[in-house]
Amino acid sequence: MALYSAAAAVLEGLERGDGGIKTLVYNSRFPHVRQLYALVAETLRYTPVLEKLLAGAALLQAEKKLPPQLAKVLVYDLLFGKGLKCGGRWKVLARRHRARLEAELARLKVQQKVSRNEDLLAPAQAASPGASQVPRYIRVNTLKTCMDDVIDFFKRQGYSYLGKAASVEELRALSGKKFLSDLHLPELLVFPPQTDFHDNLLYTSGHIILQDKASCLPAFLLSPAAGSHVIDACAAPGNKTSHLAAILQNKGQIFAFDVDTKRLATMNTMLMRAGVTSFQLAQQDFLTVDPGDPKYSKVTYILLDPSCSGSGMVSRVPRQEAAPSAERLQALAGFQRKVLSHALSFPALQRLVYSTCSLHQEENEDVVHAVLQEWGSVFRLVNVFPSWSCRGLAVFPGAESCLRASPADTLTHGFFVAVLERCGEGAAAPSSQPVAAEDNPQHREGTEPGAAPKKRKRKKQRHICAALP
């Protein structure tokens, strides 16, 4: 019941204007924030349909003690979700009205001349990328298991493995219980949209991480060597931090910062479940961290994913928030320039990834360009991942070295990534032109980013995963 009560409370908070979905979900103290977020988002997406069903079935009139927002959550999960797997007395109440609600749903479909639940949604809602386009991405947590064992596990659960995708179109065509390995990123599996793994044993045990493909790009492109010291400057909720730890093989040290106590608590739980050991969490504004502190004298890599407008996070959010004002964008960009410049001031830094989940040029290319004008004699923009077709906007020479992602082009959240690298001794003086892609550490190992890494023996990990049913 805690899940449904928490979801109803978030909906009530949204109705009062207490904050956005993410803020209210994180402040709810519900332990499984992604599960709660998904339920709230889908309930919101189906709200117009749910309101018609509640009115047609006269549920609120029959059950006067049932709060309206809780009624929406219950009816969503009963008719469109998992079928009420929890809920206590409210579950009993909702199921008592199931026949009437199903009859009302059937009547609504006949009235609108549709056969699928999805078709009841208005065009703007039905076109929501999270509902109909963006696949479910799963990152295999190599701290606990390996790709082969996870694939075998899903096969035993009745899924059909189709091998490695050859194109984005193959990902778009996924349906039913079929899945693929991603064509770009190693250790990433792809399932049809809306596939839910929140109750799956591999997820609850930390063997897999539910993480959008675009969100995997920053740690993958930072590519810190095992044993390195790394800063994750704006770290919560922790998916990128756990990805860094997997790349580091839990060797080295990750310093992770965030200002929000509750987000850090959630992050700590997530990292422990994922088997991450090489990290230190700090409730601190990254801008107040002293680059000259001896504690960070060995930090050679920084992942910077600062606060942004979130305009790219459209795949699983049914209601688009109002576009940020020009003043809001300028304020965000000012902060982003400041924090990026601060990150570049760490004396031992060799490589930095700057990323946002924003679609706005002001927060992306403009920030990178402005900071490079200040730091261009020390750092250069690296042309990474040449096989990634969606590039930065050509607003300054070399901006195409940056990466962009979008639901339409890459079947992911909207995202932006730029990689900056210190100009080494004897390197050519930095100019407006990006350095060659071969400067990417992934290339120096003889593989293009996205190519499957050489297989490593993981006897202990195979044993762990083999023990799962």
Key phrases:
single chain, 469 residues, alpha/beta, eight-stranded mixed sheet, five-stranded mixed sheet, 21 helices, 13 strands, 41% helix
Task: Set out the fold topology.
Elements: H1 2-16, H2 21-26, H3 33-45, H4 47-57, H5 59-62, H6 68-79, H7 88-96, H8 98-112, H9 123-126, H10 129-132, E1 136-140, H11 147-156, E2 160-164, H12 168-172, E3 178-181, E4 188-191, H13 201-204, E5 208-210, H14 213-222, E6 229-232, H15 239-248, E7 253-258, H16 261-273, E8 279-283, E9 299-304, H17 326-344, E10 351-356, H18 365-375, E11 379-381, E12 403-405, H19 407-410, E13 415-422, H20 441-444, H21 459-466
Parallel strand pairs: 2-3, 6-7, 6-9, 7-8, 9-10
Antiparallel strand pairs: 1-4, 1-5, 3-4, 10-13, 11-13, 12-13
Helix pairs in contact: 1-3, 1-6, 3-6, 4-6, 4-8, 6-7, 14-15, 17-18
